[in-house]
User: Fold these one by one.
Assistant:
Number 1:
Amino acid sequence: MPAKPKRLLELPTAAEIACFYGVIDNPIHKLIFETLENTGLRVAELCTLEVKRIDFNNNTIFVHKGKGGKDRVAIFGNVLKQKLLIYLEGRKNRYLFESNRHTYFSTRRIEQICKVYKAKVGIQKSLSPHTFRHIWNTRLANCGVSREHREILAGHEKGSKTQDIYTHLGIGGVKNKVIEILDKGDK
């Protein structure tokens, strides 16, 4: 059986994403998608992200047991940091985003929320919570962040397992550049 041909990913345009954000009437829903877009987190990682794993002083998130049970570090910009701090003010959340019952949102719930707003805008291209991870990765690539650094930040499999122990050191050289890129796109 022949291998499936690889299709190029067709992302929504910046204008389509702006329209998507424009129809969101719930500020927490908007912040969920902004967080996905500006951290590169997988939706499951965001759902189970505990507030104690966010280091606001260093603009980093410690992803505990992400895909494949691996730990990694994600970086976020100062614009998102301010939004998250305002959102968390006065809250005693265990998880960054919680339902009214103080449990974390399920990945399915975030997918449903995304589908509702996508339908409101009428975007024809594929748009799911995972799309925001592609947008994040594409933005970093377009601004010159190397493939190697993007792989580290995204938590993608790379070469030797031995290198994994050095991953947290690898972000140091690119952290300030990533924060600058993310802040530019957030204005």
Number 2:
Amino acid sequence: MLRRYKGLLFDFDGTLVDSGRAWDAAIPRVIEEWGLGDRETSRKLIEAGKRGYDPVRTVLPHLDDGLVRKIYREARRLLLEEYFHLVRPFFTRQQLLFLLGDRPAVVVSNSHSGFIREVLGRFDLDVFDDYVGPDLTGLTKPHPGHVEYGLWLLGTNEAVLVGDSEADERAAHNAGIDFIHAKVIHRVRRHPV
């Protein structure tokens, strides 16, 4: 399934790790503690996140970018310091190395690139060639530029994006590359792909 591609792009949350429960705890906590929303706002944030979209910008579009960055910075801190026990990897290091083979592989995520490195490092899964987050591109999926930057890093357009959300699929389509849903990879991760 992946062998035909010269390069691999992977989403992070929901694809390499399951951090949904941790984000579902951290982001609403920040929003509520900072007086920016209530329980209904928190429910909407969680739903937007499950669809792969930037939950804060989707649910609270009136907030300025500086405040949104501060919200995510605080949520990342909470996730790493208080909610990390809720994060689970989908792969062992051996499974991931087998999956990647000798092809270049880049993580393309709506999460901050340093955060991606930190989380994957804690699970000994920091095996990718590079990490693309909105801190590097100023973009988020489904914008094609986010994926196109990952393709540039791979050095090939003969690549596939493995992801878990509608935003991932749209980003791949918008960038003109194939998409494989992470569920497929999760099911076959113990077998050659």
Number 3:
Amino acid sequence: MLPLGHFATGVLVAEALRRYVKRVPDPRTWWLAGGLCGLAPDIDCIGYLILALREGWRKAVLYDHHSWPTHAPIVWICVSLAVLLYLHQSYGTLLLAGSLTHFLCDTLTPSTGIMWLWPVSTTVIRPFSLLSPGFQWVIDYLHTPAFLVEIGLAALAAVFIYRALRSR
């Protein structure tokens, strides 16, 4: 899934949690935090940029960021629990839900999949595969039904936020 879909899914998760989580801040802040939590596992893309600057884009795109530890659910479960216990319970819950939704989306969309059981197992789970190398993956992905779902999620999040802000 592309960043737009992860952000939109995070916003929708934030809204779903808003009724169940204690001490939720202003809805706009909460939705923004949800979108960022949905994007959080893609922080490894910063590593891509560093790698590209050091070795060039042709080498950088050969690495699959889904195989990096930052794309392992156990890492984000631990980070979320730390936030939940030591910083802010509501944001820890949102980070856990947003990051796990990120992995679910990456598993269900055509990609290289997710190692759900890392470090116990390096088995990649991916029901649909689209293994084009590098940037070709993005071009190929734009022609899949999964991309239409992603656009639908983004539109749903945008309409929802627009209506909620307009009714205030």
